[in-house]
Amino acid sequence: MKYNDWLNIIEVIPELIRTGDIPENDYSDFNGLCVVSGYIPIKVDALSTAITPPNDESLENFDDIEILDESQTPIGVLIPSAGREVTAPMLLTDPRYVAYLNEVSVDFFGQGPYRFNHHYVVIERDYYENYRADYMHTAPIWGGFFHDENGALYTTCKNIPKQITAITGLKMPEKEHLEKSAKALVQPYAFERFLNQYHLLELLFNYQLVENVRNASDIREGIEVLKVYLNKQFGGELELLRVVIQSRCKRPKDFVSFFTKIFKDAYYSDTAKKIFITYSRSNNDIQKLFKELEKSNTPKDQEIINSVAKSIYDIRCAIAHNKIGEYFLTSADERFVVEIMEPLLQEVLLQAFSS
Asked: What mean pLDDT comes out for the span 283-298?
């Protein structure tokens, strides 16, 4: 509700002026906002789950979080209010009331219980300009919350299927796999979701070693397995990933369709070449596969496995590292991750957990 809306309401229905210790003249205009007792509300677009109260807690059951400047002077409060209901809006504290006043629509003002749509920071007017200039944009670091004025929390890409196939026989080796798979689902952004799903493969590195040693025919073969594993370990994480895919994915030809899709689409192809060839330290595997597709040949199983491991590993590094010399993923690349690389990783996981 804007300040002018509030003026119109109390002119028609003066009894809706809030009762209590706020006189009518403490309501004022600030750039169109309705300011109460010198408090100015600022919408919070993201709040760390570490400081978000439990979902079943009513707003009236917990206190606001005080915000102090570096001299320990109070300058405002953080109100974790999104999704929380208040039963008596007219009896709210001053900061909560000004947040309510600026969020509620004209039609619902003063009409009983209200559920907030957003979290808020409410700043005292004397500190408002200073807050915007010196604190607002770094709040994710010092405060665990974020004001999205520049569209950093962009709308995420979607890849909604027309149907989903339920698959039997999948086995999560450890409870950590189940926990990590659940965490991946609730990630709204593709890059973080990809890293959580990749971690499921990382958790298989040592598990696969134990499986390979257990399946050895005798102690000599077991020792050889350990030697190979240690050599792969010194060769880096990519080699360990390749071992897992080689050992557990029994249908490598099923991966070819993802690379064919890349090859036939200009956006996919350009993005893939930048990530997997131009910026990659070792690109022979994927280059060989693309050359086979150019000739309309079916790649060999080992070429497919090598390319799958390399492409997944390169995306993982581009998200996790951002090192000089490696490709730097941006929001412009999210479509490639959502539509190609995440489904490829999911197919790898399906086969790996079917073993």
From this structure: 84
The whole-number average pLDDT for the span 196-218 is 81
Is the pLDDT reported for residue 134 higher than 90? yes
- Residue 158: inside a domain: no
Mean of the per-residue pLDDT values of the chain: 85
Residues 6+ apart with CB under 8 A from 18: 90, 97
Least confident of 102-111, 251-260, 299-308, 328-337: 102-111
13 vs 33: CA distance, rounded Å: 20
> How many separate domains does the chain show?
2
Are 180 and 141 in the same domain? no
Quote the pTM value.
0.75
- Residues 107, 252, single domain; the answer is no
Burial of 245 (0-12, 13-18, 19+ CB in 10 A): buried
Specify whether 192 is located in the same domain as 313. Answer: yes
Residues 188 and 63 in one domain: no
For 61, the domain range is: 3-146
**24 pLDDT higher than 60:** no
Q: Which residues contact 252 (CB under 8 A, 6 or more apart)?
A: 301, 304, 305, 308
Q: What is the mean pLDDT of residues 289-301?
A: 88
* Cα angle: 52, vertex 50, 187; to 5 degrees: 95
Both 116 and 254 in one domain: the answer is: no
